[in-house]
Amino acid sequence: MPKTILIVYAHPEPTSLTRRFVSESVKTLEQQGHTVLQSDLYGMGWKATFDESDFPSRINSDRLAFIQESEHAYTTNQQTQDVTTEQHKLLAADAVIFHFPLWWFGMPAILKGWIDRVYAYGFAYGYKGEGNRYRYGDGALKGKRALLSVMVGGPEDDYSPRGINGPLEELLFPITHGMLFFPGMDVLPTHAVYGTGKPSKAIVEKEIAAWRLRLEHLFNESPIPFRPQNDGEYQRNILAEHIAVGMTGLSIHIDN
Amino acid sequence: MPKTILIVYAHPEPTSLTRRFVSESVKTLEQQGHTVLQSDLYGMGWKATFDESDFPSRINSDRLAFIQESEHAYTTNQQTQDVTTEQHKLLAADAVIFHFPLWWFGMPAILKGWIDRVYAYGFAYGYKGEGNRYRYGDGALKGKRALLSVMVGGPEDDYSPRGINGPLEELLFPITHGMLFFPGMDVLPTHAVYGTGKPSKAIVEKEIAAWRLRLEHLFNESPIPFRPQNDGEYQRNILAEHIAVGMTGLSIHIDN
């Protein structure tokens, strides 16, 4: 069954490993008969900074309040064209893949700015104008799949369960849980390539093959079992006492 | 003893709560006799996107490799003026305070872009050209203090130890540990204000008073006890077996 996949990527160098992976994604997915949409953030000259120019027609021209202006622009169809285009791509997609280098344990600013600007009130949060009612497993992007493909300069040990940087998947929790599961997407385990400084040709080929395998299972792999907000495991947004008894931290929000 | 404090902030609206806190910081610190430096990222029109224009004189004009070009630009004094100015401010500061609204569980893109661009190789990482030798408690910014002042739209419960978003301090670990402790700074516990959507005037005054208290103790409060890389608690960048025995996750890197 052919699907539509949106690929969002953030690296300006066509010969970078990030872009090598993007090319592989496009090729592999199209060979499978899928439709691929692309958002080449550097190539598009994506505006990273969320600011007053995102609101050409303000509800309050005296004072810039982002949430109110975002809601107003979204609900009255007065967003900028670049933002609506990305929202339409997200809505058209069955899966979204993000390709980026890990910079300071997170996204490059240009990609964070894609989230900041595209994730309007009424769309990615405040869905149906109902505040936090629909989120974490529910929302406008419910049922779509999301997958991070991350290029990591440092060695894998540094990101291992007791590695000095912290485990990669926990460092990415604000993205996987907070940006992708939040508006409803099913998030697959992150695909990381480590030690990307100067990989040998053989290693690159091995890594590309491993990535191809992830792509082939994009629609049948099990997502990270984040706990949905609205399935009874939370009571007033706090994890119920009988679940993960006595524990705290990010990992309690995963039903392992 | 008068000190120098750098305030980096990311909100374009002068009447926002973020900017109210900035004003309070400037006033309180100057009243104490300190020197205050400011980086008003929106006001400066800070370029958020790290790209080829950051390297006016490339070591390799065929292929853009960020780390190599960053090292080259930094060591040969060929960075852009906006970046060197920020680096000089950081070096001049005894403490750095970041004021920003929490957007999607992290920094606004413009602030992430300040990190991406100012944190050059040789400066914030690869100190002395020695890869990862100096980091996590050691590096160019060693001995300085850092403090996040974060405006959070949602309620405090959602960020509590078992709250659905995850505990705030763990969500911010990539920043506090990964961006501030990494180049050597002592990081104070985050100062958060929750429910910043429409606070009453009384609540704002109460919050400002609480913030003033934090400012007054900026130089005698205890930092988060992140474990330094080079004090013997890590063996090849993995936490030694006898410490936090059998535990994993972000919190093991804090010596509580």
UniProtKB/TrEMBL annotation, chains A, B:
Organism field: Nitrincola iocasae
An annotated GO cellular component: cytosol
PANTHER family named among the record's database cross-references: NAD P H OXIDOREDUCTASE-RELATED, NAD(P)H DEHYDROGENASE [QUINONE] 1 ISOFORM 1
Stated family: Belongs to the NAD(P)H dehydrogenase (quinone) family.
Boundaries of every Flavodoxin-like fold domain copy: 3-213
Name recorded for this polypeptide: NAD(P)H-dependent oxidoreductase
MF annotations from Gene Ontology: NAD(P)H dehydrogenase (quinone) activity
Source organism, top-level taxon: Bacteria
Keyword Methyltransferase: no
SUPFAM superfamilies: Flavoproteins (SSF52218)
Membrane-crossing segments per the record: none
UniProt entry keywords in alphabetical sequence: Oxidoreductase
